[in-house]
Structure prediction request, 345 residues.
Amino acid sequence: MCVTAPRVVAFFLVFSLALFCIVLPTMAKTTIEKVSYGGWPNCIRMTNGTVDLILTTDVGPRVIRYGFVDDANEFFVDKTQLGKKNEKDWLAFGGHRLWLAPEAKPRSYHPDSKPVEAVIKGDTVRLIQPVETDNGFQKELEITLAPEGSQVTVIHKLTNTNLWHVDVAPWTLTVMAPKGKAIFPQEPYSPHPDIPDTPGQVIDKKFFLPVRTLVLWSYTKLSDPRWTFTSKYIILQQDPNADRPQKIGLSNRQNWGAYLRDGHLYLKTVRYQEGAVYPDHGCNFETFTNSAMLEVESLGPMSKMPPNGTVSHREDWYLFKGVQAENTDASIDQNVLPKVKSVLK
Prediction:
């Protein structure tokens, strides 16, 4: 049977419309709505059906929740501080926050317990804090949730409203729920140029020079059983029974850090900037833990910020299910590293 051109056009038009009607309902989309959370009535929920976030506007700027929909919050929340606001002293609250580095009191500890402005545009929410009265800085988080999957992009901004230059760096602290472990990559191994691993192996003379910075605090104890150092990774276990905090910092040119808990892998990616001067003797990643939580922290380069100057620092977050890994190179290589490679392209 011969089909005329108009009928062919009509057929494909109807088919295309039918296909569109079938596909449209399954297309992912980010939705943003006002909700109450933990006693704060004016929170913002962002979700794409796979993951959701809760942003506070009664205090902050904070991301107080990130997790799979109808599943656990990957972030730690201090239940004794839920719903509190207008406090004179700084409260930890939990979740994800922006600070000033290097750490100092009172500059880094301005109470973020007052309302913030929220600006919603498309899939992005901006949380803008009033100027901090004891240091003259204004903080802003710009949070974008991808329409599908788990990716969250967070742009952190610091603005200097003082009449003078200030040496400062953006410092982001993501406070993770207890009983998991942080995983940080070490720089790739290469043998000493004078002692190759195999006969005849030629090693670049640049490997006489150091390739990483590992920074220790006065209370850091590398003999603490919460630490595991493998050939490729640094691992820190969160222990609710621990009676002492632990912390290290590092120069991380591999651009990622992770937290593994109950089969869920939280992955944070941050691009290292070669040639930049980082705070805390050259750290762009740090981790801290006590009996309540563990922090996966990143830092931007130091900046001599002029009056009205602004610096930005970007992080990308990802969340994966069904991940298990022992504290060995082989296990992390097999179970964690493929997730990292899937997002660091």
User: Anything to note?
Assistant: Residues 1-26 have pLDDT under 50 and may be disordered.
